[in-house]
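Researcher: We plan to redesign the surface later, but first we want a full-length starting point. C-alpha coordinates attached.
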Protein backbone atom coordinates (compact mmCIF):
# COMPACT_ATOMS: atom_id res chain seq x y z
CA UNK A 1 0.00 0.00 0.00
CA UNK A 2 1.13 3.55 -0.71
CA UNK A 3 0.78 6.42 1.78
CA UNK A 4 1.34 10.13 1.40
CA UNK A 5 2.78 12.12 4.28
CA UNK A 6 4.01 15.67 4.67
CA UNK A 7 7.17 16.64 6.53
CA UNK A 8 8.79 19.82 7.81
CA UNK A 9 11.63 20.93 5.57
CA UNK A 10 14.18 20.00 8.23
CA UNK A 11 12.84 16.48 8.78
CA UNK A 12 12.54 16.00 5.02
CA UNK A 13 16.21 16.90 4.50
CA UNK A 14 17.31 14.57 7.29
CA UNK A 15 15.44 11.64 5.79
CA UNK A 16 16.72 12.48 2.32
CA UNK A 17 20.33 12.49 3.51
CA UNK A 18 19.85 9.15 5.26
CA UNK A 19 20.43 10.57 8.80
CA UNK A 20 16.86 10.17 9.97
CA UNK A 21 15.54 6.63 9.65
CA UNK A 22 12.61 6.75 12.08
CA UNK A 23 9.57 8.99 11.68
CA UNK A 24 7.60 9.51 14.89
CA UNK A 25 3.82 9.90 14.73
CA UNK A 26 0.75 9.39 16.79
CA UNK A 27 -0.64 5.94 16.05
CA UNK A 28 -3.99 7.33 14.97
CA UNK A 29 -6.48 5.99 12.43
CA UNK A 30 -4.42 7.09 9.44
CA UNK A 31 -1.16 5.56 10.74
CA UNK A 32 -2.87 2.31 11.66
CA UNK A 33 -3.26 1.68 7.95
CA UNK A 34 0.52 1.48 7.56
CA UNK A 35 2.10 -1.95 7.38
CA UNK A 36 5.67 -3.18 7.07
CA UNK A 37 6.87 -3.16 3.43
CA UNK A 38 4.41 -0.39 2.51
CA UNK A 39 5.73 2.63 0.61
CA UNK A 40 5.45 6.19 1.91
CA UNK A 41 5.83 9.23 -0.33
CA UNK A 42 7.10 12.14 1.77
CA UNK A 43 6.57 15.72 0.59
CA UNK A 44 8.52 18.71 1.86
CA UNK A 45 5.87 21.20 3.09
CA UNK A 46 8.07 24.11 2.03
CA UNK A 47 8.44 22.78 -1.49
CA UNK A 48 5.65 20.49 -2.62
CA UNK A 49 7.62 19.40 -5.68
CA UNK A 50 10.27 17.79 -3.48
CA UNK A 51 9.30 14.20 -2.87
CA UNK A 52 11.07 11.06 -1.74
CA UNK A 53 9.91 7.51 -1.45
CA UNK A 54 10.73 5.20 1.45
CA UNK A 55 9.91 1.63 2.36
CA UNK A 56 8.55 0.83 5.80
CA UNK A 57 11.01 -1.57 7.45
CA UNK A 58 9.40 -1.91 10.86
CA UNK A 59 6.73 -0.33 13.06
CA UNK A 60 7.67 0.33 16.69
CA UNK A 61 4.49 0.88 18.71
CA UNK A 62 4.45 2.27 22.27
CA UNK A 63 1.88 3.27 24.90
CA UNK A 64 2.86 6.92 24.50
CA UNK A 65 5.67 9.23 23.35
CA UNK A 66 7.46 8.96 26.74
CA UNK A 67 7.86 5.22 26.28
CA UNK A 68 8.89 5.68 22.67
CA UNK A 69 11.56 8.25 23.57
CA UNK A 70 13.00 5.86 26.15
CA UNK A 71 13.23 2.96 23.74
CA UNK A 72 14.22 4.28 20.32
CA UNK A 73 17.61 5.78 19.25
CA UNK A 74 16.75 9.47 19.17
CA UNK A 75 19.47 10.41 16.67
CA UNK A 76 17.69 8.14 14.17
CA UNK A 77 14.43 9.93 15.02
CA UNK A 78 15.87 13.26 13.87
CA UNK A 79 17.61 14.76 16.91
CA UNK A 80 21.16 16.06 16.78
CA UNK A 81 23.72 14.30 19.03
CA UNK A 82 23.78 17.04 21.67
CA UNK A 83 20.18 18.14 21.28
CA UNK A 84 17.89 17.51 24.25
CA UNK A 85 15.08 15.19 23.25
CA UNK A 86 11.87 15.56 25.20
CA UNK A 87 8.58 13.71 24.53
CA UNK A 88 6.87 17.05 25.15
CA UNK A 89 8.33 18.13 21.79
CA UNK A 90 5.38 16.26 20.32
CA UNK A 91 2.95 18.67 21.97
CA UNK A 92 3.41 21.08 19.11
CA UNK A 93 2.00 18.50 16.69
CA UNK A 94 -0.68 16.75 18.77
CA UNK A 95 -3.15 17.91 21.45
CA UNK A 96 -2.99 16.25 24.90
CA UNK A 97 -6.40 14.78 24.19
CA UNK A 98 -5.24 13.08 21.02
CA UNK A 99 -2.10 11.87 22.80
CA UNK A 100 -4.26 10.25 25.49
CA UNK A 101 -6.47 8.59 22.95
CA UNK A 102 -3.82 7.00 20.74
CA UNK A 103 -0.55 5.16 21.11
CA UNK A 104 2.73 6.39 19.57
CA UNK A 105 4.54 4.84 16.61
CA UNK A 106 8.11 5.00 15.35
CA UNK A 107 8.01 4.19 11.65
CA UNK A 108 11.40 2.77 10.72
CA UNK A 109 12.08 3.47 7.07
CA UNK A 110 14.68 3.08 4.34
CA UNK A 111 15.10 5.27 1.28
CA UNK A 112 14.10 3.62 -1.97
CA UNK A 113 16.37 3.76 -5.03
CA UNK A 114 14.87 5.71 -7.93
CA UNK A 115 13.80 3.58 -10.91
CA UNK A 116 16.21 3.03 -13.83
CA UNK A 117 14.45 5.68 -15.89
CA UNK A 118 14.93 8.27 -13.16
CA UNK A 119 18.57 7.23 -12.71
CA UNK A 120 19.20 7.72 -16.45
CA UNK A 121 17.63 11.14 -16.33
CA UNK A 122 19.74 12.04 -13.28
CA UNK A 123 22.86 10.77 -15.04
CA UNK A 124 22.16 13.00 -18.04
CA UNK A 125 21.77 15.96 -15.71
CA UNK A 126 25.09 15.10 -14.02
CA UNK A 127 26.76 14.94 -17.46
CA UNK A 128 25.41 18.34 -18.31
CA UNK A 129 26.74 19.80 -15.04
CA UNK A 130 30.17 18.12 -15.06
CA UNK A 131 30.89 18.60 -18.77
CA UNK A 132 29.12 21.74 -19.85
CA UNK A 133 27.47 23.83 -17.17
CA UNK A 134 28.59 23.44 -13.52
CA UNK A 135 26.77 26.69 -12.71
CA UNK A 136 23.48 24.79 -13.13
CA UNK A 137 24.17 23.18 -9.75
CA UNK A 138 25.80 26.31 -8.37
CA UNK A 139 29.23 24.66 -8.28
CA UNK A 140 32.64 25.18 -9.89
CA UNK A 141 35.09 22.66 -11.35
CA UNK A 142 38.80 22.85 -10.62
CA UNK A 143 41.35 22.98 -13.45
CA UNK A 144 41.27 19.18 -13.76
CA UNK A 145 37.50 19.01 -14.00
CA UNK A 146 36.90 17.85 -10.41
CA UNK A 147 33.80 18.91 -8.50
CA UNK A 148 33.32 18.57 -4.76
CA UNK A 149 31.02 15.53 -4.39
CA UNK A 150 28.96 16.89 -1.49
CA UNK A 151 28.51 20.26 -3.20
CA UNK A 152 27.32 18.47 -6.33
CA UNK A 153 24.79 16.42 -4.31
CA UNK A 154 23.60 19.58 -2.58
CA UNK A 155 23.31 21.49 -5.85
CA UNK A 156 21.38 18.74 -7.63
CA UNK A 157 19.28 18.19 -4.49
CA UNK A 158 17.73 21.61 -4.88
CA UNK A 159 15.62 20.34 -7.74
CA UNK A 160 15.89 16.53 -7.66
CA UNK A 161 16.21 13.69 -5.21
CA UNK A 162 19.78 12.47 -4.90
CA UNK A 163 22.09 11.25 -2.13
CA UNK A 164 25.52 9.60 -1.95
CA UNK A 165 24.10 6.07 -2.42
CA UNK A 166 22.33 7.12 -5.61
CA UNK A 167 25.35 8.99 -6.97
CA UNK A 168 27.61 6.00 -6.24
CA UNK A 169 25.19 3.68 -8.05
CA UNK A 170 25.13 5.97 -11.09
CA UNK A 171 28.93 6.18 -11.23
CA UNK A 172 29.35 2.43 -10.68
CA UNK A 173 26.73 1.27 -13.17
CA UNK A 174 27.05 3.87 -15.93
CA UNK A 175 27.06 2.00 -19.25
CA UNK A 176 29.93 4.11 -20.61
CA UNK A 177 31.73 4.67 -17.30
CA UNK A 178 31.39 8.41 -17.85
CA UNK A 179 32.39 9.50 -14.33
CA UNK A 180 35.18 8.92 -11.82
CA UNK A 181 35.55 9.60 -8.11
CA UNK A 182 38.92 10.33 -6.54
CA UNK A 183 40.17 7.76 -4.05
CA UNK A 184 38.16 8.90 -1.02
CA UNK A 185 35.15 9.94 -3.15
CA UNK A 186 35.30 13.56 -2.00
CA UNK A 187 35.69 14.62 -5.65
CA UNK A 188 33.98 13.57 -8.87
CA UNK A 189 34.51 14.39 -12.55
CA UNK A 190 33.41 13.39 -16.05
CA UNK A 191 36.08 11.31 -17.82
CA UNK A 192 35.62 13.05 -21.17
CA UNK A 193 33.12 14.93 -23.30
CA UNK A 194 33.66 18.40 -21.86
CA UNK A 195 32.92 21.68 -23.52
CA UNK A 196 34.18 23.69 -20.52
CA UNK A 197 37.90 24.12 -20.64
CA UNK A 198 39.44 21.66 -18.17
CA UNK A 199 42.44 19.37 -18.32
CA UNK A 200 41.29 15.88 -17.27
CA UNK A 201 44.88 14.60 -17.59
CA UNK A 202 44.20 12.47 -20.66
CA UNK A 203 46.87 9.97 -21.58
CA UNK A 204 48.58 10.66 -24.89
CA UNK A 205 48.57 7.24 -26.56
CA UNK A 206 49.47 5.58 -29.86
CA UNK A 207 46.14 4.74 -31.51
CA UNK A 208 45.16 1.46 -33.20
CA UNK A 209 45.36 1.33 -37.00
CA UNK A 210 41.75 2.39 -37.50
CA UNK A 211 39.38 4.39 -35.30
CA UNK A 212 35.72 5.11 -36.02
CA UNK A 213 33.47 8.14 -35.89
CA UNK A 214 29.67 7.96 -35.84
CA UNK A 215 27.64 10.88 -37.09
CA UNK A 216 24.36 11.65 -38.83
CA UNK A 217 23.96 11.11 -42.58
CA UNK A 218 23.16 14.80 -42.99
CA UNK A 219 26.73 15.71 -41.84
CA UNK A 220 28.57 13.54 -44.38
CA UNK A 221 29.05 16.20 -47.03
CA UNK A 222 30.35 18.84 -44.65
CA UNK A 223 32.66 16.33 -42.91
CA UNK A 224 34.09 15.21 -46.26
CA UNK A 225 34.87 18.87 -46.98
CA UNK A 226 36.20 20.08 -43.63
CA UNK A 227 37.12 16.85 -41.86
CA UNK A 228 36.00 16.08 -38.34
CA UNK A 229 35.91 19.17 -36.17
CA UNK A 230 35.33 19.31 -32.45
CA UNK A 231 32.29 21.59 -32.57
CA UNK A 232 31.48 22.68 -29.00
CA UNK A 233 33.62 20.00 -27.30
CA UNK A 234 37.32 20.14 -26.46
CA UNK A 235 38.17 17.26 -28.86
CA UNK A 236 36.85 15.22 -31.76
CA UNK A 237 35.53 11.98 -30.25
CA UNK A 238 36.44 8.66 -31.88
CA UNK A 239 35.29 5.14 -31.02
CA UNK A 240 37.42 1.98 -30.86
CA UNK A 241 34.94 -0.03 -32.95
CA UNK A 242 32.31 0.36 -35.65
CA UNK A 243 29.31 -0.63 -33.51
CA UNK A 244 30.08 1.94 -30.80
CA UNK A 245 30.48 4.61 -33.48
CA UNK A 246 27.18 3.63 -35.03
CA UNK A 247 25.45 4.00 -31.63
CA UNK A 248 27.03 7.46 -31.22
CA UNK A 249 25.79 8.41 -34.69
CA UNK A 250 22.23 7.39 -33.84
CA UNK A 251 22.09 10.19 -31.26
CA UNK A 252 22.13 12.69 -34.13
CA UNK A 253 19.75 11.08 -36.65
CA UNK A 254 20.12 8.38 -39.29
CA UNK A 255 23.64 7.14 -38.50
CA UNK A 256 26.68 7.13 -40.75
CA UNK A 257 30.12 5.86 -39.79
CA UNK A 258 33.53 7.10 -40.90
CA UNK A 259 36.71 5.03 -40.64
CA UNK A 260 39.67 7.15 -39.56
CA UNK A 261 43.19 6.21 -40.65
CA UNK A 262 44.57 6.79 -37.17
CA UNK A 263 47.89 5.06 -37.83
CA UNK A 264 48.66 7.37 -40.73
CA UNK A 265 47.62 10.42 -38.72
CA UNK A 266 49.86 9.32 -35.85
CA UNK A 267 52.78 8.77 -38.24
CA UNK A 268 52.17 12.27 -39.58
CA UNK A 269 52.54 13.70 -36.08
CA UNK A 270 48.92 14.06 -34.90
CA UNK A 271 48.36 13.46 -31.20
CA UNK A 272 45.81 11.03 -29.81
CA UNK A 273 44.52 10.70 -26.26
CA UNK A 274 42.53 7.99 -24.58
CA UNK A 275 40.14 8.67 -21.71
CA UNK A 276 39.87 6.29 -18.77
CA UNK A 277 36.58 5.07 -20.23
CA UNK A 278 38.15 4.16 -23.56
CA UNK A 279 37.07 7.06 -25.78
CA UNK A 280 39.71 8.24 -28.27
CA UNK A 281 40.21 11.96 -28.65
CA UNK A 282 42.10 14.13 -31.07
CA UNK A 283 42.08 17.75 -32.08
CA UNK A 284 40.98 17.57 -35.70
CA UNK A 285 40.78 14.92 -38.40
CA UNK A 286 41.51 16.38 -41.87
CA UNK A 287 39.44 14.99 -44.79
CA UNK A 288 42.32 13.01 -46.26
CA UNK A 289 42.32 10.58 -43.29
CA UNK A 290 38.63 9.67 -43.37
CA UNK A 291 36.55 7.30 -45.40
CA UNK A 292 32.81 6.80 -45.21
CA UNK A 293 31.80 3.16 -44.55
CA UNK A 294 29.10 1.45 -46.59
C1 LIG B 1 29.57 16.40 -36.16
C2 LIG B 1 28.83 10.79 -26.55
C3 LIG B 1 29.36 18.73 -39.86
C4 LIG B 1 29.96 15.13 -35.47
C5 LIG B 1 29.49 9.92 -27.57
C6 LIG B 1 28.86 15.02 -34.45
C7 LIG B 1 30.82 10.56 -27.81
C8 LIG B 1 30.41 17.68 -38.11
C9 LIG B 1 28.56 16.46 -34.09
C10 LIG B 1 30.68 11.93 -27.28
C11 LIG B 1 31.67 18.06 -38.60
C12 LIG B 1 29.09 16.89 -32.75
C13 LIG B 1 30.80 12.92 -28.39
C14 LIG B 1 31.70 18.82 -39.80
C15 LIG B 1 31.98 16.94 -36.80
N1 LIG B 1 30.53 19.13 -40.38
N2 LIG B 1 29.27 18.02 -38.74
N3 LIG B 1 32.84 19.22 -40.33
N4 LIG B 1 32.62 17.59 -37.76
N5 LIG B 1 30.63 16.99 -36.98
O1 LIG B 1 27.80 15.38 -29.51
O2 LIG B 1 31.18 12.84 -31.41
O3 LIG B 1 26.94 9.49 -24.43
O4 LIG B 1 29.64 17.12 -29.80
O5 LIG B 1 29.98 14.05 -36.37
O6 LIG B 1 29.58 8.60 -27.14
O7 LIG B 1 28.64 12.90 -31.50
O8 LIG B 1 27.51 11.90 -24.17
O9 LIG B 1 30.02 14.83 -30.57
O10 LIG B 1 27.73 14.41 -35.00
O11 LIG B 1 31.86 9.91 -27.16
O12 LIG B 1 28.83 10.18 -22.97
O13 LIG B 1 29.17 17.25 -35.10
O14 LIG B 1 29.39 12.03 -26.72
O15 LIG B 1 29.10 10.35 -25.28
O16 LIG B 1 28.34 16.24 -31.76
O17 LIG B 1 29.78 12.70 -29.36
P1 LIG B 1 28.91 15.94 -30.32
P2 LIG B 1 29.89 13.25 -30.81
P3 LIG B 1 28.02 10.48 -24.13
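Model: Full-length starting sequence:
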Amino acid sequence: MFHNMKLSHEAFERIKSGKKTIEIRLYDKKRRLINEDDVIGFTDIENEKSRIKVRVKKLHIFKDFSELYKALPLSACGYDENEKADPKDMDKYYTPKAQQKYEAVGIEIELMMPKDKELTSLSKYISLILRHDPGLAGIALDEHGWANTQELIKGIGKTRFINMDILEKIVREDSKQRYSFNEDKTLIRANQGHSVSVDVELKETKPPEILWHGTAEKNIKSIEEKGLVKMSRLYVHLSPDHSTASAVGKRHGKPAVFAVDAEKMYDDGYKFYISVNNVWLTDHVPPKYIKICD
